[in-house]
Amino acid sequence: MKSIYVVGIGPGAWEKMTIEAHEALKACDTIIGYTVYIDLVKDHYPDKEFLSTPMRKEVDRCVLAFEEANKGKQVAMICSGDAGVYGMSGLMYEVGEKYPEVELKIIPGVTAALGGGAVLGAPLIHDFCLISMSDLLTPMEKIEKRLEAAGEADFCICIYNPSSHKRKDYLQKACDILLKYRSPENVCGYVENIGREGETVKVLTLQELRDTEVNMFTTVFIGNSQTKNINGKMVTPRGYRNV
Amino acid sequence: MKSIYVVGIGPGAWEKMTIEAHEALKACDTIIGYTVYIDLVKDHYPDKEFLSTPMRKEVDRCVLAFEEANKGKQVAMICSGDAGVYGMSGLMYEVGEKYPEVELKIIPGVTAALGGGAVLGAPLIHDFCLISMSDLLTPMEKIEKRLEAAGEADFCICIYNPSSHKRKDYLQKACDILLKYRSPENVCGYVENIGREGETVKVLTLQELRDTEVNMFTTVFIGNSQTKNINGKMVTPRGYRNV
Question: Which residues in chain B are contacts of A235 at CB distance < 8 A?
């Protein structure tokens, strides 16, 4: 049976990819992905064919993958982070309903919540929520409702897509919702360019985060009520009882 | 400066480890971890020293790591999945306050939510919560509050530790809470022994999940209101608008 690998390549640096992902990329003929991600892996697989479609042309990219597979090529579709967290695996299954002759093999990877968490310390040790601030496909009321719920139930929270050219004040809005339930001193952090050139990291309070402008390459972390700043690292304990 | 690697080895099979994790294990003298995880990696690093402490002796295990590092050994502390998701990195920072001369290098890995998600299809494509049902260190009221919040705000949910010898009915309790907010037909799934021998996978409805007994090696997935069963795969769309 024909198959396509859908591969999460991790948060940036090539070494953050799994061994399984590396084996899949070595074994394929054609690597398809958004140009930024192709640039991250290209030098490691010089003998492969690379294909791409522009940003926001994700459906076209999926169709391209199935069409190439049907030509008899072993295709790998790559995504940054994990294939299944705001990644391409869902859309590949949806588009794939028209291509029942092609099987999908999903290869997971380290998503930014985990990659960024490792840089900050241990912010997500306990129950957490992952919320994207992108309202392209999700109504803002839904996003706000999730922030309210996560704030009230004392989840650690990791925020993806906290900012863009058009959405400069979204992180501020999110912090204002969380400040209804959390102390202004609640420990927070953010990481820019995880595992890439220019990686920067900052641990700060929720109030300070509210007044910070982050860019679109930033992943934001909100601790729960127990999260501590230990010598500049953001650390959430394993529970609510003493160790 | 002395350092300890805290390494997430992924959900099971060795290939699901990152290249960075493999490099760290190759570079160290001593690998410390719970015996089950040591057994998963042992054959790949035959020339290393392996040390362990019994289950629930996590603080002793951390102290052991720092003491060995202080003897001049390069130590790697391993955890299954990711080092920072219910992993050892948080406790290592807490215990490490007494060992300021030792730096921690956290190496992230694929946690069961991502590894299991890849087996099921694409259950966590959109905003999700990770909740552990273990009430050893967290009061049950807190866990229930989080299930309520996640249910109401239409998050995808991944449940860790859904069952144990003493907590046979916890998953049923969790499903009963979610059924207050979700349809009995809400698409769900679970994976046993992710990436290991005996891996089994099942896609089913929330009502069916409620009436299923899972074991302690199981990771459970609850879709959001948009999650679909596409030819036996659990697939969550990217948002609430048409593709």
Answer: 90, 93-94
